[in-house]
Write a structure and sequence with these properties.
Layout: E1 12-15, H1 21-31, E2 35-40, H2 60-63, E3 69-73, H3 79-89, E4 94-97, H4 101-106, H5 111-117, E5 122-127, H6 142-148, H7 151-159, H8 169-192, E6 196-201, H9 202-214, H10 230-233, E7 240-241, E8 246-249, H11 254-263, H12 267-270, H13 278-283, H14 285-296, H15 301-311, E9 315-316, H16 321-325, H17 328-333, E10 336-340, E11 346-350, H18 373-379, H19 384-390
Parallel strand pairs: 1-2, 1-4, 2-3, 4-5, 5-6
Antiparallel strand pairs: 7-8, 8-9, 10-11
Helix pairs in contact: 1-8, 8-9
């Protein structure tokens, strides 16, 4: 698939984001063909220095969220840097960042100023909290939002102490929501010629994300039960031990459960009124999973996998990240991409995890710091002398 055939070809995005949330959102836009110009300070995005690397300023965390982009360096604390950015705004469809609003306002790069200059601009701000609330303008990172949105408390209800998910869930979830919101605004821009101010607060997005199943009885006023979806809250919900390891199993439909208990030699369990239908099973999930645990430990993982596959009961092994590198399915569908590195090593990274017309969009190397500064600024109309002064 060529870049010209991708759906966002011709859309230009200025990505002023740093760390993970906005860069991850911008990467999705780049994956679908937008020209994403990453605008970095002279020191570069801090993630350029987090993790192992084959060359300076190209560390692993940066590589994970900045493929398919270009990079320019501008010091937005200087008049010349801001003027150069404004020249780029004139030809951009989207400007996005994850700075606090007051910081952008102090630089004269607030949405009112930039949209007055370019009324068709989609200006997207991905930040911690909605601006109109009492938390507006507070700094926030993934850990803070996981704690405030209910996720850490749910972990505590299961384990006895609040805990964070071992992934940057808030950054990536809000980043994906940001990409969707920006795309919606771009559709209107392309149709009607008008811009938008898109605000994507992490806190509100993660509360909405967590509430989908966990608001539960608190959907109603007065409450018809507590918050928290019982099936995913029980401590019994985990990979089940087998005779020689572990397996992930989730019978879900009535037929799944009936077939499973018959194959296990326990058909009477399927007739237990506590487990008759998805509602009773949910209310008695701890007892149900305890019985499943007793059953699965009697045979090996391979034996259960063969039985469950025959019954079409969803199941799978517990895999490590190392296992995934050699996973036969991922190899067959070509998820991982490899790119040569300056030190002779090979960079492995996931490709775009969706297909368009049966093809996976191409992957280009994340940009080196300032790699495209001269090219882009000259194209924006700056003189060679101006560009030299900036670089």
């Amino acid at each position: 698939m060529s870049l010209e055939t991708l759906p966002l070809h011709g859309v230009r995005v200025l990505d002023l984001g740093a760390v993970l949330m906005a860069p991850y959102a911008a990467q999705w836009l780049a994956d679908f063909g937008a020209e994403v110009i990453k605008v970095e300070p002279p020191a570069g995005d801090t993630t350029r220095r987090i993790g192992p690397r084959a060359e300076p300023d190209m560390a692993s965390v940066f590589l994970g969220a900045n493929r398919n982009k270009k990079s320019i360096v501008l010091d937005l604390k200087t008049d010349a840097g801001r003027e150069a950015l404004l020249a780029l705004v004139d030809g951009a469809d989207v400007l996005m960042h994850n700075n606090r609003p007051q910081k952008m306002r102090a630089l004269g790069l607030d949405p009112e100023t930039l949209r007055a200059r370019s009324p068709r601009l989609v200006y997207a701000c991905l930040h911690g909290f909605g601006e109109t609330g009492p938390y507006g303008g507070r700094p926030a990172y993934d850990d803070i939002i996981q704690g405030m949105c209910g996720l850490a408390d749910l972990q505590g209800q299961r384990s006895g102490a609040p805990g964070y998910l071992p992934t940057s869930a808030a950054d990536k979830t809000a980043g994906m929501a940001g990409a969707i919101a920006i795309l919606a605004a771009v559709v209107r821009q392309q149709r009607d010629g008008v811009g938008a101010y898109v605000e994507v607060p992490m806190f509100e997005n993660l509360v909405a994300y967590t509430a989908v199943e966990h608001l539960y009885g608190r959907h109603f006023d007065p409450p018809k039960g507590p918050a928290a979806y019982p099936r995913v809250m029980t401590a019994e919900r985990r990979p089940f031990a087998t005779a020689d390891g572990h397996i992930c199993v989730l019978p879900y439909t009535d037929q799944h459960w009936k077939s499973f208990f018959e194959a296990a030699g326990r058909p009477e369990v399927a007739d237990d009124p506590r487990f008759d239908g998805v509602g009773p099973r949910t209310e008695n999930i701890e007892a149900l999973y305890a019985i499943v645990s007793e059953i699965l430990v009697t045979r090996t993982t391979a034996e259960w996998s063969q039985i469950l596959q025959r019954l079409e009961v969803p199941n799978g092994p517990v895999k490590s990240l190392d296992d995934l590198i050699a996973d036969p399915h991922l190899e067959a569908v070509g998820l991982f991409e490899t790119l040569p590195q300056a030190d002779g090593s090979t960079l492995r990274m996931t490709g775009v995890p969706v297909l368009i017309d049966g093809e996976r969009p191409p992957v280009r190397m994340p940009p080196r710091l300032g790699e495209h500064t001269r090219e882009i600024l000259l194209a924006a109309g700056l003189s060679p002398q101006q560009v030299e002064a900036l670089t």
